[in-house]
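step=encode ok
step=design start
structure_in=
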């Protein structure tokens, strides 16, 4: 997982700081080509323990700007959308308009803690060993049966 984080950070350093919100992504062939029409990085989050796809359009938030923005300003998340905020060990929901599910992941992709339906204007639990937080539409972690101990891989 560390090689993926480094590869995505290198990609984002050469990217414009202004990004727009896009809804359609091309079918990627490999990690270097996973860019949608608006030049945003989109990944798939797959629970390899259970063999289920957690989200098919996950934005990578690995810069200070993208981590700070997160999901703020959005009115909702589609069931297949999400954002992976890295590095972080906790998140806040101040200014959010809708609840989300959050899975805190270790550096190897193992799920350390899960919040189901974290509501606006709340704080998540601090997860000391977490490397990042996968934020997806409320109810999707239960739908995909993702629990603590599962391994999530980004493709």
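sequence_out=
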């Amino acid at each position: 997982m560390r090689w993926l984080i480094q590869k995505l950070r290198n990609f984002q350093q050469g990217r414009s700081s202004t990004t727009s919100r896009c809804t359609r992504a091309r079918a990627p062939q490999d990690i270097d080509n996973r860019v949608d029409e608006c030049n945003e990085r989109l990944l798939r989050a797959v629970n390899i323990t259970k063999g289920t796809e957690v989200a098919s359009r996950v934005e990578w938030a690995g810069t200070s700007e993208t981590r700070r923005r997160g999901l703020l300003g959005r009115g909702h998340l589609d069931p297949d959308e999400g954002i992976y905020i890295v590095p972080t060990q906790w998140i806040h929901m101040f200014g959010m308009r809708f609840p989300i599910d959050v899975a805190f992941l270790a550096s190897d992709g193992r799920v350390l803690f899960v919040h189901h339906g974290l509501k606006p204007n709340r704080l998540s639990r601090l997860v000391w060993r977490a490397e990042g937080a996968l934020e997806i539409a409320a109810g999707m972690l239960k739908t995909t049966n993702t629990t603590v101990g599962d391994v999530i891989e980004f493709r």
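step=design ok
step=annotate ok -> The domain at 2-16+40-154 is CATH 2.60.120.1140 (Jelly Rolls).
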